Amino acid sequence: MPGSLVVCENDLQQNEGQMFVNCLIQICNDYFGEQIAISLPSYHGRDYRRRVSGDIHDKVHAQGETDFERILLQELHTSGRWSVFVYVGTDKTILKTGAREMCCRPSDYIVYLRNNVNSDLNNRLDVLKAFYFRNLKSRFVVVLDKTFNEPEKEVSKVFTKLWEFKIINVVVLLERTALDTSDMGAVSKVVRGNLDVGHFHKVIGVYTWFPYRDPQNCYDTRQIYLLDIWDMKGNGQFIQKNFLFPQKIKNDLNKCEIIVSTTENSPYVERPSYINSNGSLRNVYDRGWDMRLLHIIKTAVNVSVMFQPPSVGKQGQLLKNGTLTGIAADLTYSFSDVALTGMPLMLPFAVVGDYTAIYSRSEYIWLIPCARRLVDWKNIFQIFSSTLWICVLLSLFTAASVIYCLAKHKLFRWTPKIGRYDNLFGSSCNIWAVFLGAAASPVPGISAVRVFFLAWICYCLAVSTVFQSYFISFLVKPGMEKQVSSLDGILNSGMEYGFIPYFDVLFPVNESARYKNILSNRKNCACESCCLERLAYDRDFAMLFRLVQYEYAVKYEYIDPENSRLLICRTPEPFLVFYHCMYTPKGHHLRDRLNVIISRIFQAGLYRQIQKSDLHLFKLRLLVNVRGTLDSEYYQFSLEHLQVVFYIFLVGHGISLLVLLLEILCSNCKYFT
């Protein structure tokens, strides 16, 4: 629970100072951890420094002490329970020096104020936040001196100022008479009944305030509540012994308003709409995956949502003057309560804000040109491998040689039925004719040649069946060019690549020289559509892209109008993987409640269902007029697929005509008599 506060007023007299110290020591014993940071005001004319050293774990730095401060620091030091760092005013140099001596950031703070709550407390909290204030469980003690004339108003100012830093568990210890204490703020009947001290007896009232109590007074810091009373008799004690830092964030926030910082980032957050509110236009985001997630959270917590105006910097940019813009600025300066727009869990955002539970996974892939269909004549040589073609030719030569040898054997020289098989050219022509499925003439007349010839016919039938099956299937689904499938393939292909400048922060440049090389050679794709068009139509570019955005907005946007094929493909394996979460300002009180709800949404699979349903509807809308894509199960068989067949028939008839002419010219040759 962020920011717990204790405010004490004292008159700096020895006994009253001791009573306040007893009060603070009791609070430290009951609620503080081992690390305590103490902020003291600046004292003009008394600026000295000394060091009180004890055990190695007990370190105190003091500067410009009063009696109250001296007693408090002495009590904390001699107790041996805490490691204490004390700094004066808003000197960041002292704070940085002491920060190196702390083993970890403290979660409990004591701030002593003498005057000017607004400026002094604001400056000191700003310094604390810059160096220490990061723990959601942090608790604060703010001591108010008696120089404040209207303590009730000053306490309310403390509440208001701490609320600006999202510190809400505020407890005020205020020294007053018993009568004045009970008259200030709302007092429960139990506390009032136990107030058995005299009306003018000195006591310390324990006050607090509660945000989100009702829709009309969500953040009214003037509504003060009396929790308990510290009786100053003897060593002092709490009368009611209530818990001083109760849970302030309930499950129901009573329709109170929270401020959300977001920006257009399809498909997580779509373009906003504008409504007229009190004479001015107000932006409203209601479409996108993260907006549907926000709606679930809004219903569960029972809050209303107000969106920050769109920022030029979108997710955030660091300007030359050191200031931030966009969502990063809203988190840094606590302008909003929640930030979401498909933001990954990564250092630039985790430094300026606190991340919530993870609700989604994001992959970054390389977009590459889809492989095109090979030219028709190239398809012919892609049906079978060169090894298979060599084996077929060798089988033809072997079969012709075997038949020739059988026919020329001395046992068959006397038979007149050998025919054209007793010469190599004739046997080769018959073997080739059978292989092509044509008739061979004449049929061999001897048994040995007939047996081998029959075996060759069976072999050719099997080979022809396999060949025709593969050939027809290849015509239906032609071969494709070699598809680039990895970053190494992109780099080896020589094509250029790029991405938007924002993606530079995704690369861990300190861990890999390869990533540094990628960043140094990448092209600037600030105009995403320009890079996508170059990738799809010029086919000489690759682009780093989010997978979900590719599936949702790019994949089916770039399709070849002639054959309805995809023009932009992706690498099979993700290049980078990140997880998405929401962000809150550092130490924000809503983070714990958001974590509970987001974890339940993630475990129930609701966010994943939102993505699936949205993608399904998008595909239906986009593909309703599309004839077919590479993902289609069936293909339309057209004349375009048979074009290669007609070419082959033409070549075959040309070869047949050439052979016929050769036979006519060589009719007197002895091989054809």
CATH C-level class of the domain at 4-238: Alpha Beta
Question: Main beta sheet, described?
Answer: 6 strands, mixed
In CATH terms, what is the architecture of the domain at 4-238?
3-Layer(aba) Sandwich
How large, in whole angstroms, is the Cα Rg?
Answer: 43 Å
Sheet/helix structural class = alpha/beta
Helix content: 25-40%
Q: Using DSSP, what is the number of strands?
A: 24
What oligomeric state best describes the polypeptide chains here? Answer: single chain
Low-pLDDT residue spans: 9-13, 44-65, 627-633
Question: Overview of this structure, please?
Answer:
By secondary structure, the protein is an alpha/beta fold. Helix content is 39%, strand content 19%. It contains 21 helices and 24 strands. The strands form six sheets. Strands 1, 9, 10, 11, 12 and 13 form a six-stranded mixed beta sheet that branches. Helix 16 (513-521) links the parallel strand 20 and strand 21 (523-524). The longest helix has 30 residues, at 447-476.
